[in-house]
């Protein structure tokens, strides 16, 4: 029973969190870097090369779309990927911990 309750609480948290709207920390700027053939995050001290998944997620961060909107757009762009909600949520948490994004 506790496992079911934990799962339900986790799902509810995911649903609530999905309504958050991510925006970039003003210290970071996303850019396609042709020389790197990838998206990068630029900041005053340097650059972070992003893997393709991170780049696709962050390319949709505009300060207007919620995490759920971004997930829906990714599902439409990559229908063969299956459910992406958990992966997008996990990445958003990491990006927030790294101070690349914040939720407004």
TrEMBL record:
Entry-linked Pfam families: PqqD
Domain of life: Bacteria
Family matches, as InterPro entries: PQQD, PqqD_bac, PqqD_sf
MF terms (GO), sorted A to Z: quinone binding
Single Gene Ontology BP annotation: pyrroloquinoline quinone biosynthetic process
Keyword annotations: PQQ biosynthesis
Coiled coil among keywords: no
Transmembrane segments: none
Pathway annotation: Cofactor biosynthesis; pyrroloquinoline quinone biosynthesis
NCBIfam families for this protein: PQQ_PqqD (TIGR03859), PRK02079.1 (NF002535)
Function in brief: Functions as a PqqA binding protein and presents PqqA to PqqE, in the pyrroloquinoline quinone (PQQ) biosynthetic pathway.
Family: Belongs to the PqqD family.
Assembly and interaction partners: Monomer. Interacts with PqqE.
Protein name in the entry: PqqA binding protein
Source organism: Marinobacterium aestuarii
């Amino acid at each position: 029973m506790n496992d079911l309750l934990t799962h339900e609480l986790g799902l509810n948290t995911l649903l609530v969190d999905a309504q958050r709207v991510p925006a970039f920390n003003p210290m970071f700027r996303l850019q396609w870097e042709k020389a790197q053939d990838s998206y990068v995050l630029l900041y005053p001290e340097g650059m972070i090369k992003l893997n393709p998944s991170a780049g696709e997620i962050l390319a949709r961060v505009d300060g207007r779309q919620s995490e759920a909107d971004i997930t829906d757009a990714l599902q439409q762009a990559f229908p063969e990927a299956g459910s992406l909600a958990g992966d997008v949520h996990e990445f958003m948490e990491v990006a927030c911990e790294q101070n690349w994004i914040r939720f407004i």
